[in-house]
Design goal:
The protein is of the alpha+beta class. It is built from 17 helices and 27 strands. Among the domains are: 128 residues, Pleckstrin-homology domain (PH domain)/Phosphotyrosine-binding domain (PTB) (PH-domain like, Roll); 391 residues, Porin (Beta Barrel). Helix content is 37%, strand content 23%. The chain has a 7-stranded antiparallel sheet, sandwiched between helices. The protein has a 6-stranded antiparallel barrel with strand order 15-16-19-20-18-17. It has a two-stranded antiparallel ribbon with strand order 8-9.
């Protein structure tokens, strides 16, 4: 099948018209040009199916838009890519019947047809092509099993057919290939599937060769038609009609040849994919080794400092000595915060008690170093995080040092049910409309995830006092990119906020950062947030509607809504929209997250704009070496590109690079680093950041000051944090039922839902956004929460 479809490219180029050709289980797409090809470009026939198999065309030229010759000359085509359908999941779009999604496991292709009917024809053809090769594999396995039974019967009769040993060798080769696949990457189900198809084809060819050689060695007249029918066709019945038998033999030969072409087309891509996986593993191993070395150096410096402190307290020379029995002593008293959030008074303890407690602490550190050195290297989801951590303020106003660990242990991971049984009917649909079991969640709300977006708010502090408008915009772009640093390894789903649910965050000093979030709509799910910096130097606000789609092997998350950053000193108003997040290998293999797309930041005050591009990890032929790469450039109001840009990766660090116009030399400075990862097991099985671990902490002072709608008071989220999975599940069901009952009551009474702390406004494009009213902090100061609904 062949015809024209529109392929989604990116936000700047949008939908691009391409010629698609489906043949031998591979969907190729071509860019068409009327002008001659440029040097080095590949010239291919405009219509391969028409030239090779004209009788098999399934669409007319008028329906499919077949490429034709025009008056200007032949239409040239350049191949832009190939998609192996054996490794893909094909699905229709749930809201747009003219769209198709093809998920290869590493990339999602979004296609659109000119009509709904044409889209249905393409989906049917793609699914039939995929099923065709799956049937070939099953039929080959069945024929090989029958051949093995036949060989066993012949061996019992004392006959040893020629080639039987080669069939066994082929089986052994198949087992070796399967073991090799596990070595190369047991997490890649697509790789195993492709290797299985190749092994079955090899076994089928060996079987056909063996049986044909066996027939040639037999004495007597050779019935060619019968031999070919028994070897190639699935039937062993007598030949009744020679024309029917010949047709079956030819059809079987076509199947075998087509299958061979399909496997050869996929084999090159398969090896490139495996090579890319190996490069990615090597890169992650090097990163982890460097991270462990840094942790070791830090711990050794702490040990050395503790020894010097002990020597000074004892009146001895601060000379490092090797302590006996791995014991270390420190004369300083250990002070821990009280559970109610107030700092306890430091009381002297007996010298022996202090010495023993400190000894245990330092011994534990030394054991941690030894364990770190013995531990195997972790994957990219556990890459170390660098940078300062923030303390959290109590809602009552006192400083509270945030907790370092979750109550749950990494050993408390529950057995999860089959995700496929839950999602099998959800391909192409929005997962926000499907109830997911609580064991697939992480103990944090989506509103709290919004607060993680401004963890690096110090970038806005710097931007608020930077005179250069280009640098200001790049600092804001760095904040926009830092949103995604917390997604590395975070495969747990946050809790969907209930309607009216809120969350507040206040920095330790109460002035550096204050933020309020509220769930203002449930269908569609819309969250609003508003943050203020020190001395009101900047504000950050957003209206976020998260849409997601499940494509079979992955889930794509599309955050819709505009982020607004205002810098008061320069009267800057900067807006941008977030990039796309994709979670790969949802059902089989190791899940990993990719963030990609282009974020366009526009300063509406001076006309400057910045384009920050998050590189998408390559598909089959791509390489993981560029995973997470980011690059951002700035243009002024006249459209001139400035000699400065941002580069780095969203999972490690960002550098601001400035190029001198005269000399051409570049100088760079690191303006953001990903925060350091918490200790091993600190967040249980959830891979949460140190900042996220503290967001759901609830103290006595907080409980007395927070509104009853705050996410910290949500019972199912708290129970999950405490590893009480059964109660967390029942509480989640209870809260959802309570929310449905409240909605029905409002519909019955005709009373619309009105958010408490945000009001709707229309932006320049006519879309609805939610603006913070400021009433939250007034109610908080008075402790007046009577207007809050009972949602928990």
């Amino acid at each position: 099948m062949e015809g024209h479809l529109y392929k989604w490219t990116n936000y700047l180029k949008g939908w691009q018209r391409r010629l698609f050709v489906l043949e031998n289980g591979v969907l190729s797409y071509y860019a068409e040009r009327g002008a001659p090809l440029a040097p080095g470009e590949e010239e291919v026939p405009a219509s391969p199916v028409t030239m090779l198999l004209p009788g098999l065309r399934t669409l007319s030229a008028s329906a499919a838009g077949i490429a034709r010759r025009d008056e200007a000359g032949p239409l040239q085509t350049v191949c832009r890519g190939r998609i192996n359908l054996q490794l893909a999941v094909i699905s229709s779009h749930d809201s747009d019947p003219a769209r198709i999604a093809i998920d290869t496991g590493t990339q999602i292709y979004h296609l659109r047809a000119d009509s709904n009917e044409l889209c249905k024809q393409w989906v049917k053809a793609l699914q039939q092509s995929k099923a065709y090769f799956e049937r070939l594999v099953k039929r080959a396995a069945g024929r090989r099993m029958r051949a093995m039974v036949k060989q066993a019967e012949q061996q019992q009769e004392g006959v040893s057919p020629a080639g039987a040993h080669k069939s066994a060798a082929a089986d052994a080769s198949s087992e070796d290939e399967h073991d090799a696949a596990l070595e190369f990457g047991e997490e890649d189900a697509a790789t195993l599937q492709a290797l299985q198809s190749r092994d079955e084809l090899l076994a089928e060819l060996v079987r056909v060769q063996s049986e044909l050689r066996h027939a040639l060695t037999q004495s007597g007249e050779l019935d060619t038609l019968r031999v070919l029918q028994e070897t190639l066709a699935a039937s062993n019945s007598s030949v009744v009609n020679k024309d029917v038998a010949s047709a079956g033999i030819v059809a079987a030969l076509v199947d075998l040849i087509t299958w061979g072409i399909h496997v050869l087309n996929a084999d090159d891509e398969l090896w490139k994919h495996r090579l890319a996986n190996e490069r990615g593993r090597a890169m992650r191993a090097e990163t982890e080794a460097a991270s462990l070395q840094r942790q070791l150096d830090e711990l050794l410096r702490e040990l050395e400092h503790s020894q010097r402190t002990e020597s000074r307290a004892d009146g001895k020379s601060p000379v490092a000595t090797e302590p006996e029995d791995d014991e270390f002593f420190d004369a300083g008293a250990q002070v821990s915060p009280r559970p109610d959030g107030r700092s306890p008074s430091t009381s002297p303890e007996p010298a022996g008690s202090v010495s023993r407690s400190t000894s245990r602490s330092l011994s534990d550190r030394r054991l941690a170093v030894q364990a770190a050195l013995r531990a195997p290297a972790r994957t990219s989801s556990d890459t170390s995080r660098r940078g300062p951590s923030r303390a959290m303020s109590t809602a009552g106003g006192g400083v509270w040092e945030p907790r370092k660990r979750l109550p749950i242990s990494d050993r408390d991971t529950p057995p999860k049910p089959s995700l496929w049984s839950i999602l099998k009917d959800a391909i192409g649909k929005d997962l926000s409309k499907i109830s997911i079991p609580v064991v697939f969640n992480e103990p944090i709300s989506f509103l709290q995830r919004l607060v993680e977006d401004v963890e690096a708010s110090y970038l806005l502090d710097v931007a608020a006092r930077t005179d250069d408008p280009g640098r200001r915009l790049l600092y804001v772009a760095a904040l926009a990119v830092s949103h995604y640093s917390s997604t590395l390894g975070r495969t747990g789903k946050p809790f969907n906020p209930l309607l009216g649910e809120t969350f507040e965050y206040v920095s330790p000093d109460g002035h550096s950062l204050r933020m309020v979030c509220e769930q203002v709509s449930h269908h569609p799910p819309v969250s609003a947030s508003h943050a203020v910096g020190r001395d009101d130097a900047w504000t950050y606000s957003t209206t976020c509607e998260v849409r997601n789609k499940f494509w079979g092997k992955s889930v794509e998350v599309f955050p819709r809504g505009t982020c607004h950053v205002r810098l008061r000193r320069y009267d800057d108003h900067i807006t941008y929209e977030k990039a796309t997040t994709c979670v790969h290998n949802i059902l089989v293999g190791r899940m990993w997250i990719d963030n990609y797309g282009e974020m366009v930041l526009v300063n509406h005050t001076n006309g400057y704009r910045c384009v920050a591009k998050l590189t998408k990890t390559g598909a089959f032929w791509g390489s993981h070496d560029t995973y997470g790469a980011v690059r951002a450039h700035v243009w002024d109001a006249r459209g001139r590109q400035l000699p400065m840009h941002l580069e780095g990766a969203w999972h490690s660090a960002l550098r601001l690079v400035h190029t001198d116009d005269d000399s051409g030399r570049s100088r760079s400075e690191t303006i953001w680093r990903r925060p350091m990862e918490p200790p091993e097991g600190a967040s249980g099985p959830f891979h949460m950041t140190q900042f996220a671990i503290a967001l759901n902490e609830l103290t006595g002072d907080m409980r007395r000051a927070l509104p009853p709608t705050d996410a910290r008071l949500r019972p199912d989220q708290r129970l999950l944090e405490n590893a009480d999975y059964l109660k967390a599940t029942s509480e989640k069901v209870r809260l959802e039922e309570k929310q449905r009952a409240a909605r029905k009551q409002r519909e019955h009474s005709g009373t619309p839902w009105t958010p408490l702390w945000f009001a709707p406004v229309s932006n320049e494009g006519g879309a609805t956004e939610w603006q913070f009213t400021g009433a939250y902090w007034e109610s908080r100061a008075r402790g007046e929460w009577r207007r809050c609904p009972d949602i928990f």
